[in-house]
Amino acid sequence: MLTLDKIYQASHVLRQVIRKTDLIAAPKLCPESTIYLKTENLQVTGSFKVRGASYMISQLTPEEKTRGVIACSAGNHAQGVALAASKYHIKSLICLPDGAPISKVEATKSYGAEVCMVKGVYDDAYAKALELQKEHNYTFVHPFDNENVIAGQGTIGLEILDQMPDVDAVIVPVGGGGLISGVAFAIKHLNPNIKVYGVQASGAPSMYASLHENKITCLDSVSTIADGIAVKEPGPHTFQYVKDYVDEIVTVMDDEISAAILALIENQKLIAEGAGAVPVAAAMFHKVPIEGKKVVCLVSGGNIDVTILSRVIKRGLLMSGRTCMLNIELIDKPGQLKDVSRIIADLGGNVISIHHERANEGRDVNGCFLRITMETRDYAHIEEIRHALLQEGFHIVD
Q: Is 104 labeled as catalytic in the residue annotation?
């Protein structure tokens, strides 16, 4: 049974394992609100998951510790379990989906765990872990639907209220729901007036769909850059806690998540993984009613695979109007490229690539197309450049 006392006990137990992460101001992310970031991306192992895993493992009996533990994860829970098991000198076996970032797989091994790669997504790894648990009599450390795990995650709620007692709203990532269950339980019991909003990726909206159906819903598939919250089905415990204590669940698209990751890098000098950036995306793109409010965005993790970071940044630049591609239809004659470049340069745009090709069949025989990619300040800047080109008589093909 989850209680506030259990969350306080978890906070005491975890003092020797975790760090109390900072709450930092982020005034540029959403000027309409006063935004602060709870920086769990700077936590030990780079994610909040070490809290729940460490507290659950600390509560095992000596016999359970002797048998060892098993877990499944997209990466962050794996690292938390591996580190906690090592601290208690317990064997750990982690089942990971084969699509988990290599960086997370290698980090899990570095904390002392044995790794079993499973074809599919998180839910396939979960099924394999249950199979191995029965076969070897391990103790299963659930990534979200266990009340000791939820209590460990709830310690973040205590820290937020200690650091900012007058907070109006807290925005939390949601995958299986363990993090928001613990945070919302702690906050609502101490101050029920504080709003708690959950955010899921639109490509993995299992909790969002379950709440709308008023029953636990299992998605056929999930697809999102936020691999840490790519969960097909919430648990019975977390579903009930979210129903009881969370004010609203919203979703954000991958392009919005990418823009949030980019904004955190540029404005806050912080690296967040997709799952960690979804609260910031919800604030930036006005998915929750926080105008004029003092708000904490819980940046849950920073373990993004560096091999996809450049792709995420590229998408973020496009989403925020920082880069733009224009396709311009021209008459193939001298001086056209010079005139286009002059207009863009005069308005402060920076051309970074050009592709020129002759018009295809059905077009003017003297026609050509100029495809320009340029760096811009924002969407207003793009519209300014488009308007100037149109004023000069150029035809922009959408």
A: no
